Amino acid sequence: MKLYHAIEELQATGIVTAGISQRKGGVSRPPYTSLNLAEHVGDAANAVTANREILFQQADLKNLHYCRQIHSASVIDVDNGTGVTSEKPPEADALVSAHRGIALGIFTADCVPIFILDLSTPAIGIAHAGWRGTFARIAVNTLAQMKASFGTVATNCQIHLGPSIQKCCYTVSTELLDQFAERFGSTVHDGTNLSLQDANVNQLVEIGLSVTSISVSPFCTACRTDLFYSHRAEDGQTGRMLSFIQLNAEN
Ligand SMILES: [Zn+2]
Predict the structure, then answer these.
(1) Cα 87 to middle of ligand 1, angstroms
(2) Distance from the alpha carbon of residue 76 to the mean position of ligand 1, in angstroms
(3) Which of 49, 162, 218, 234 is within CB 3.0–4.6 Å of 238 for a Cys-Cys bond?
(4) How far is the CA of 168 from the centre of ligand 1 (A)?
């Protein structure tokens, strides 16, 4: 059984393995049925461990680095020795690396997973962008950290926004809509519903990226709870997908 949805737009470069886990094929019981990858949602620890083992084996992930996500706009450079371990992950919402064979991961269930590939260095980044992270421009921050760490030039990057809640299902308060419209332009909402995807695309275009270098998944997590977890569609009681990206070993 296929446990993850590959990000073909990035994998086609041959440089990376990138994907997002789907919800079927794991061992977790309701409401986490069944491939929950996150420890912090109340699922049985042994189920999460077993789920990670089967996913890591299928996706060939050996060395996953992740963080304790706090809806911030903070970025960790995994290569600078801050020591990202599974026992005590540091607080942040994005990770960057230029090492081959290191996988970066973030957990989501509606929030936007943002995959970044710097084709020329090469280097990678991944970010967790809910409304708070999106509003605080975490995608731009992640590119800024990649520039500081690896000399990444944003216009050499290819970016993918993975499965996440889309405008069809994301009704928010008028106050929030107004704040987003003011910061990212009125096209990010339709009067009642917000597009986190558009807000992220707009902030990337604002710093010089071409829309052709940014791809957006067609999947809305709230519409497709058959495939993915949705925090909003499942009233907060559900599992988390793992989005991952890893620089492949040189051939
Ligand atoms: Zn939807």
Answers:
(1) 35
(2) 31
(3) 234
(4) 4
Kindly give the distance from the C-alpha atom of residue 146 to the centroid of ligand 1, in angstroms, as a whole number: 32
Distance 222 CA to ligand 1 centre (A): 5
Query: Which pTM was predicted?
Result: 0.97
Q: How far is the CA of 223 from the centre of ligand 1 (A)?
A: 4
Contact (Cβ atoms closer than 8 angstroms) between residue 123 and residue 15: no
- How many angstroms separate the CA atoms of 51 and 3, rounded? 10
**Chain centre to alpha carbon of residue 177:** 22
For residue 218, the CA-to-ligand 1 centroid distance in Å is 10
Cα separation, 242 vs 246, in Å, equals 13
pLDDT digits (tens, 9 = 90+) for 46-65: 999 999 999 999 999 988 99
Contact indicator for 237, 229 with CB cutoff of 8 Å? no
Strand partners, 115: 126, 160
At what angle are helices 174-184 and 196-206 packed, to 10 degrees?
Answer: 20
Domains along the sequence of the chain with CATH? 4-152+219-247 (3.60.140.10)
Q: Could you count the other beta carbons within 10 Å of the beta carbon of residue 105?
A: 22
**What is the distance between the alpha carbons of residues 209 and 212, in angstroms, rounded to a whole number?**
8
Residues in the chain: 251
